[in-house]
Amino acid sequence: MASVDIRDATLREGMDVPGVGFDLEQRLVIAAALASAGVREAEVVAPARVAGDAAVARAIRERGIAIRCSGLVYANRPEWRTDAETSRESLDRFDLLMPLSPQREPRDLGAKADRITEAIEACRALSGDVGAGFPHSTQVPADVVVDMARRSAVSGATRITVYDTNGSADPYTVRELVERVLEAAGGVPVFFHAHNDLGLATANSWAAVRGGASGLDLTVNGLGDRAGNGSLEQVVVLLERTGVATGVDVAALLALSRLVAELSGEPVSNLAPVVGRYAFDHRSPAHAEAPEEFEAVDPSRLGTRRTV
Question: Residue 12 sits in which domain range?
Answer without folding.
Answer: 2-264
